[in-house]
């Protein structure tokens, strides 16, 4: 398993850290989430929209 440093958000105007750092997602965690989603994508693509603006 890959160890990555935590991710820290920064205020764009000041460059100061904002909020607590959060753990980074490892490639293994990312794959574990995205693989089932990729399998569901074809069915989801054929789901009708709830609202269509004209």
Question: Could you walk me through the main structural features you see in this protein, from its secondary elements to its overall organization?
Answer:
There is one protein chain. The chain is of the alpha+beta class. Helices cover 35% and strands 19% of the residues. The longest helix has 19 residues, at 27-45. It is flat. The mean pLDDT is 86.
Tertiary shape: flat
- Helix proportion range: 25-40%
Extended strand count: 2
Overall SS class: alpha+beta
- Taken in chain order, the helices and strands follow as EEH
Largest sheet: 2 strands, antiparallel
pLDDT averaged residue by residue: 86
Report the sheet-strand fraction.
15-25%
Number of helices: 1
End-to-end separation in angstroms reads 49 Å
Descriptors:
54 residues, alpha+beta
Brief characterization of the structure:
This protein is α+β, with helices and mostly antiparallel strands.
């Amino acid at each position: 398993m890959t160890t990555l440093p935590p991710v820290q958000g920064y205020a764009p105007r000041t460059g100061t850290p904002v909020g607590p750092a959060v753990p980074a997602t490892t490639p293994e965690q990312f794959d574990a989430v995205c693989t089932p989603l990729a399998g569901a994508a074809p069915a989801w693509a054929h789901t009708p929209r709830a609202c269509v603006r004209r």
